[in-house]
Specification:
This protein is α/β, with parallel strands linked by helices. It has nine helices and ten strands. The strands form two sheets. An eight-stranded mixed β-sheet has the order 1-4-6-5-7-8-9-10, with helices on both faces. Strands 2-3 form a two-stranded antiparallel ribbon. It is globular.
Length: 344
Amino acid sequence: MTHHPFRFLALLLPALALAQLPPLPAPTGIPKPTPILPGGIVLTLYPPDSPYLNRARLNEPEQYNMSHSVPGRIASIVNIHNPSIEIHPADAAMNTGATVILVPGGGHNTLNVGSEGADFVPYFYNYGVTTVILRNRLRRDGYNPQTDEVNDALQSIRLVRAHAKELHLDPNKIGMMGFSAGAELTAAAVYFPDFDKKNAAPSDPLSGVSSRPDFAGLIYPGPTPFAPNRTAPAIPRNVPPAFIVCAGSGDRVHAMWADQYFAAMLAQSVPNIEMHIYARGRHPGQPLPDGTHMTGGLTWRNGMPFGTWQDRFIDWFRDLGFLEHPGVETRAAADVATYMKQSR
C-alpha cells in the first residue's frame, strides 16, 4: 500500500476544507518533526515507503540545537532523515499568492533554520507572501548534497504546488531562496526537468506536478553547477529568473560562485538575472576585524549596505510582478515565454 504524503493536511489544516483527502493512516511510529515557529504546518516530503528515504533511520528523531540567548528558539537542526517543509501562510487580506521556500545553509553539516528560515517568516508576511521552511537531509548524516539534498529541494516545490489551491497560493509564483549551502541546492534546482521525468510514474502521488521554481534567490551561495570542478548540463529554456547577493572580497569564494552563476546565465541572455556584490561584509560565521562574528539572514550587519540586501530583493520581486494579486501573470513569466520563443 502506498501512503499518501499529504494526509496530515486533514488534521493540520481544518480551516482549509480538505475533506477530499484520504483518511489519516494508522500511526507508523515515525517521529513527527517539531514546528520551528508556532503555527507552522509541517508536512513530510515523501511517504514512509518512498525509495528516496533511508528507512533504517526513519525512526530517529531530529536533534534541535537551541539558542543560548533566546529561550525556546530553535537555532539549527541535525539528524534529519524524514525531510519536511513547514508552511506559514500569508494573511488572507494581504495574500499575493506568492510563496518563498526558504532553504537554510549550514555547510551541509547543520541546518540554520533560525537566522535563515524563521526570521524571514514575519518579514515576508508583511508583503503578503507565504513562507515555507525546508528541512532537507544533510551530508553529515550520510546524504549526498548533489543528489539527496537537491531531490529534497525539488520535492518541496512539487509538494507546495500540488496543494496550491487549498493553501490559497498561486501555482505560478512558487520559488526558492537558499542561503550558502541552501543556495547551492537552489542553484541546482533550476535543472528540474530530469527530476520531473524520473518521478512521472502513475504510482507517484505528485506525478505531473512540476518542480520548476518560478524564481530563485541565491544568497551568498555555495558552489553552483557552473563551478569549475562541475559539469553543468545545458540551461533549460524556461530557466527561472534569479536574484543573487553576496559580500565581495570579504567573502571572495562565495562571491566567485555567485559570479559564475550570473555569468553563465548572462552568456545565454537569460532574462531578469540580478546580482549584488557588496563592497563590505563577511560570510556568516566569519570573524570581523573587531573580533565579532558575522551572522546571516536579516542581520543588520553593523549598518553595512549588505545588511539591507533583502530590500533589494523585494524591489526585484515587485518589479517582476510577484507581489500582484493571485492569478495575474507575472512579468517574469511573460519574459520567460518570450525568451523561449527566441533562437539561441
